[in-house]
Amino acid sequence: MKIPFTKMSGAGNxxxxxxxxxxxxxxxxxxxxxxCNRRLGIGADGILLIEKSDISDFTMKYxxxxxxxxxxxGNGGRCIAKYAFDNKIVTHEKxxxxxxxxxxxxxxxxxxxxxxxxxxxxCLILNQNIEFEGKILKGNYLNTGTDHxxxxxxxxxxxxxxxxxxxxxxxxxxxxHPVYSPKGTNVNFVSCEGSNVIKIRTYERGVEDETxxxxxxxxxSALLSSLKYTMVSPVSVIVQSGETLEISxxxxxxxxxxxxxxxxxxxTFTGEIDV
Length: 275
Hints:
- The chain is an alpha+beta fold.
- It has two domains: 2-118 and 265-269, Roll (Diaminopimelate Epimerase, Chain A, domain 1), CATH 3.10.310.10; 122-254, Diaminopimelate Epimerase, Chain A, domain 1 (Roll).
- The protein has helices at residues 28-36, 74-86, 167-175, 215-228; strands at residues 2-10, 13-19, 46-51, 59-64, 94-99, 102-110, 113-117, 122-132, 135-143, 147-152, 186-194, 197-204, 209-211, 235-238, 244-252, 255-264, 266-274.
- Strands 5, 6, 7, 8, 9, 10, 11, 12, 13, 14, 15 and 16 form a twelve-stranded mixed beta sheet that branches. A five-stranded mixed beta sheet has the order 4-3-2-1-17, sandwiched between helices.
- The longest helix has 14 residues, at 215-228.
């Protein structure tokens, strides 16, 4: 059977998007593993499925490249919003979708820019001591729809600059560290670049590699940077692709609300795949 798909990018985070309202994909985990393979499939960080919803305009289902379902994807949320608008699944520029037990509100800014209202973050843990190769790594944790460890490199100078840090090796070790068991975590390395600007590199759980961008990781890094560096909303996050995501929020002490992730959502190509 041939399945139509759209390959999309959210600030460099890439996805295969399929309209699954008629349940043409019955085994999404297996489908994701096959199509996300960069040598034998289409190649992507994950798949996005549009499905029916009784309480919003549609439902978003997200599966990582390894077939796992690990929580919300902010860059994917903007991409699926663009897909829905471009394909007239929604016809208004402000709409909502259901995902992982939450309703996400979306605003279309222009044809390639969308703003996504995120869940209020939970489970903040500051100043974690993570034992690693006989050293103590300083970390932090925040759930912004999925799990994120935030590593400020100026707290950990032994790991080098953002350009030189071994994101794959160090990220993989932290991702599987007992501190974050049993689920593991995504890992973000953060560098302060000035007033309200940070750069990040992210090791993503489920992709099991560095990605060019991570939306929920950008949100977590921006919010933690507002605490560490006294940054104010909005915070600009420069991701590995070179693009910039904008994170706006309200903060009271260590509580955050009205978090909005704004950035690009673009179409790379369309096609059909045999499954």
